[in-house]
Amino acid sequence: MTPAGRAGRIGLYLFLVTTALFFAIPLVIVVLTALKDADEARGASIFLLPRSPDLEAFSKAWSSACIGRDCNGIGGRFWNSVVITALATSISLLLASLNGFALALWNLRRAGLVLGLLLVGAFVPYQIMIYPLVRMFAVGGIHQTLAAVVIVHVLFGLPILTLIFRNYYVGLPPELIKAARVDGAGFFQIWRLVILPLSLNVAIVAGILSVTGVWNDYLLGLIFSGQNWQPMTVSVASLSATASSGVPEQNVNMAATLLTALPPLLLYLLSGKYFVRGVTAGAVKG
């Protein structure tokens, strides 16, 4: 290897290590702090190992930490997040698959215009749409309900998911659709019997992206969910502002943060190989 090539490889490894440390160090601090007791978490260095690690902070964060006046922990909000994520992801994947099929293989009139509008929708900051949606939901009587928070997640996730499905379906043989139409199958029959069975790879990619985005969201959950359907991310922020006897319990805050971040992290660790397989199968090419 030439000196220039060796220097380039060393520089690449330094960059990768620096990037890994940039993301790993905050996670290590969260874990170490969550394993300490309250006094040690306040007084010791954040980089020191806990003297006697225990899971008491996790137990308190889950079942008895105070969020405002509610001292039942973030455990109940976990199921709120599960329901919101499951509904929003399921609806988004179904609609995105239908839209992608129509745009890619159904010879839809003005499909290019629709695709261009989707591209615009995918990159418009959703913050500018929040106030009009709040007013619409308030007039419709569904503001700060489960329906409201699911609808906004579907609306804001649909453009990019539709593009992912559309780009995947473009690579499918059009002869499949022609043969099905010759046999008398309609749009929904072809989608259900021909397209869906071929969509596993792209569905895994889109599903992981959707679950991660919905679960990790804070702003939409804060504005549209209401008190009864408050997700974990909003609860953690409220917990961080709550003190026990006037003294913040940083170990409980860190434990709650880690519990909130754990589901999408586990999802990626368990399904990462399927995600890579879906990407390499052409799920995001076009």
UniProtKB/TrEMBL annotation:
Mind listing the GO biological process terms from this record? transmembrane transport
Sequence intervals crossing the membrane:
12-35, 82-106, 113-134, 146-169, 190-215, 252-270
Please list the residue ranges annotated as the ABC transmembrane type-1 domain. Answer: 78-271
Q: Which GO terms describe its cellular component?
A: plasma membrane
Q: What is its main location?
A: membrane
**InterPro entries, alphabetized:** MetI-like, MetI-like_sf
Does the record's keyword annotation contain Cytoplasm?
no
Topological relation to the membrane, as annotated: Multi-pass membrane protein
Q: What are the subcellular locations of this protein? A: Cell membrane
- Kindly state which keywords UniProt assigns to this record, in alphabetical order: Membrane, Transmembrane, Transmembrane helix, Transport
Query: What family is it from?
Result: Belongs to the binding-protein-dependent transport system permease family.
Write the protein's name.
Carbohydrate ABC transporter permease
Source organism per UniProt? Histidinibacterium lentulum
